[in-house]
Fold this sequence. Notes:
Chain A is an all-beta fold and 108 residues long. Chain A has strands spanning 4-7, 10-13, 19-29, 34-39, 46-50, 54-55, 63-76, 86-92, 97-99, 103-107. Helix content of chain A is 0%, strand content 56%. In chain B, 0% of the residues lie in helices and 52% in strands. Chain B contains no helices and 11 strands.
Amino acid sequence: EVVLTQSPGTLSLSPGERATLSCRASQSVKTSYIAWYQQKPGQAPRLLMYATSIRATGIPDRFSGSGSGTDFTLTISRLEPEDFAVYFCQHFGGSSWTFGLGTKVEIK
Amino acid sequence: EVQLVESGGGLVQPGKSLRLSCAASGFSLSTYWMAWVRQAPGKGLEWVANIKEDGSQKYYVDSVRGRFTISRDNVQRSLYLQMKSLRVEDTGVYYCVRGPAVPYFYYNVDVWGQGTTVTVSS
């Protein structure tokens, strides 16, 4: 089973700044199998990115994804007030769909 | 509108059973993997179980294998999670989610229900 380690645990930034979130897999994985989600308090998660770098429907282009092998990154180019939330990466394995523990992006 | 609506959560004593249901609408259930994902209070997301579009394959996280059973009824447009021998650590919000679709061009969970809360406590 692939284990995903997200870092940092918390990212304190100001609106307009750039956010870089890391997701490291315990073994090399296919880019097709990595997705990212955003969750705000009291809400269900929302799909942001899939296949590492494809934005889901309605996701603004300030969100981008990259990576390969074991290292994957979600970048928010300029933080908007609505972007402060928790972000999770996910791997689709053959028999398990594992999530990272999440990165909280908070207002500095 | 594509929608997933969970029901069946509640307060239950340790060792007891509970059955969660999820009603799907707005899409053809029979072409999608489906799954349950849970979230303990203040914690992250945990995949619990998934089931192939025709029900022929089912997988579980180690902590629930042998206690939980995922099933589906594509005709009734429903997904289920039978939970037995519940433990305090099973407490959380349980989300019904839609996974990859045949022919599996992309892998993601693109639809989430609003969640149903399960509390295991004496």
